[in-house]
Design a protein that fits this description.
Distance between the termini: 69 Å
Largest sheet: 2 strands, antiparallel
Helix content: 55-70%
Structural class: mainly alpha
Number of strands: 4
Length: 237
Amino acid sequence: LVRMRRLPLDLMLDHLIAEGSVPEAALDRLVRRLAEFYRTARRVRRPVESYRRRLMEEIEFDRHALTSGNHGLPPARVGRLAETVLALIDDSKDLLAERVREGHIVEGHGDLRPEHICLGIDPVIIDCLEFNRELREVDPADELAYLALECARLGAPAVGRRILSGYQRESGDRFPSRLVRLYTGFRALLRARLAIEHTGDHRVRLGDQWRTRSLAYLRLAEQSVLGPRPVRSRKGR
């Protein structure tokens, strides 16, 4: 038998974001918990090149899934985004190799999202991705960029930025913004693909909702790796 304890809904990070009331002190406690978790996590040793190749193969898979079929997504937009992230990975090959060699690839959580975080006095993180260890083998910078991406999708980019900066300060693991942009683009394409796949499942209703979510991930990826689009002025104004 398993005895379970229900976590309080009003302390879950996604609920707090929706309410617009995420306590900074609670985020600081979460940062300390995350820093300790990644500091003691099992290190994953793997060939340097295989890590970069895994990222690139995943992006190619996501691009194909997002542009094939009748999903209603703009293929040129997806293609441009995928090419930009791939170029960013290629330009960052020395940085990625350094992350691997220095032991920054660990057995992490695998699905670190706001709905899996309870910000009590003692922060609790649930729903570790248990069914596939390879999907848990991540760079903390990747996993925290993913968490920041999800915070931004829910309308709270400042929360994600505070977690990322706080983690670097607490852990001493300083990584450049270029790495965050790379991982944000990588995760956004992955999440866009997972969202759009729901529209092909006849058991899933509200297909438009999943298409909208997929587009939201693409927009966030563009903002991260391409930068904000310039505002065009209208004549006569």
